Amino acid sequence: MHEGAEIERPGDHERAPGRTCPGGCVARHGMPVGEEDWVHVGEPLTVAAGGVTAQLCLSVDPDSGEQDGPYVLIGTSEHTPAEAAELGRALMELAAASGDG
Questions:
Q1: Number of structural domains found in the chain
Q2: b/e per residue, 16-25, with b = 16+ CB within 10 A?
Q3: Residue 86 falls within a domain, yes or no?
Q4: Residue 6: inside a domain, yes or no?
Q5: How far apart (Å, rounded) are the C-alpha atoms in residues 9 and 25?
Q6: pLDDT at 24 (0 to 100)
Q7: Percent of the chain beyond pLDDT 90?
């Protein structure tokens, strides 16, 4: 885990904003591969059969420090944290309504 770890790149001394990984980021950084190196992701959580996962994701521009996100990726769908929380509540209500829990 790279929690709080600095992202090493050539010329990093010129890029003060956005150099630190947010807590919980498990992405490997360090190779200057463009925008993909700006993306920070959390550990995947398997949420459905067939390998559907949920993952916290955000991107931070290394030059400006501007942040896009966070988002919760569920399978191939992108949700705000509030949308993901509402989905969780709805699933809990659905499960409770079944009378089997």
A1: 1
A2: eebbebbeeb
A3: yes
A4: no
A5: 17
A6: 77
A7: 35
